Amino acid sequence: MLDPTHDLSSTVQNFLQRTGFWAAQIDPDDITALEAAGIPPAGAAGQYFLRVGGATTAGRMYEIDNICWAVRHSNFARDVEATRRMLGRTDWIPISSWEGDGGFFYDPVRDHVALITAGPALKAAMNGTFDPQWTSFNAFLEWYFELEPGSADPNSGSPKSAR
User: Fold this and answer.
1) What's the whole-number average pLDDT of the chain?
2) 13 has pLDDT over 60
3) CA 81 to CA 23: how far, in whole Å?
4) Domain limits at 93?
5) Which has the closest alpha carbon to 103: 143, 62, 60?
6) C-alpha 155: how far from its chain's center?
7) Which residue in 21, 34, 62, 89 has the most C-beta neighbors within 10 A?
8) What is the mean pLDDT of residues 141-149?
9) Which CATH number goes with the domain that contains 79?
């Protein structure tokens, strides 16, 4: 696992607090759920999932699932296993539903996030030749919630274009 030394950015924290998504208290059961999902509680992704309220959050494109909620109230383990079988990879965790033609996936080992869509991107992911668009969970969230000036569509070449 990644040494979770990267905190959730103050930009994201301030946004979540300002919009009412930030939970003041952390439920100990959520820590257990997050660990069961394979996400370190101390890293940016862990802090986000422990602090965000509700089952999902909306931003650009697809809703992000609250992993703690999903582990506790859905068939999350089954869904992760199905995703891993489909992709042939054990390192990515779905953080959104596969809606329409794609979804977001998190790699807790490298702290990367990928948007995988049907077609060439899915084929590349299944072949192990797909590079994630975001090299940190913070960068992904800042793009997702449109918090950084000039944060562009992931397919436009910024922050990193998909193959």
Assistant:
1) 82
2) yes
3) 29
4) 10-149
5) 62
6) 17
7) 34
8) 89
9) 3.40.1580.10
Phi and psi at 134, nearest 5°, equal -120, 130
Q: In what order do the strands lie in the sheet with 112-117?
A: 93-94, 102-107, 112-117
- 76 is a domain residue: yes
Answer with the residue of higher pLDDT: 2 or 37: 37
Whole-number Å distance between alpha carbons of 68 and 39 = 10
pTM equals: 0.82
Q: Does residue 34 lie within any of the structural domains?
A: yes
Q: Torsions phi, psi of 117, nearest 5?
A: -115, 160
Q: How many CB atoms lie within 10 A of CB 38?
A: 15
Tally the domains of the chain: 1
pLDDT in tens, 65-111: 999 999 999 888 888 888 888 777 777 899 988 767 888 999 999 99
Cα separation, 86 vs 73, whole angstroms? 23
Instruction: Give how far Cα 40 sits from Cα of 69, 92, 150, Å.
Output: 16, 14, 30
Peptide bond into 120 cis (omega under 30): no
What the block records as the tokens of 23 is: 């939970």
Tokens 């953080």 correspond to 95
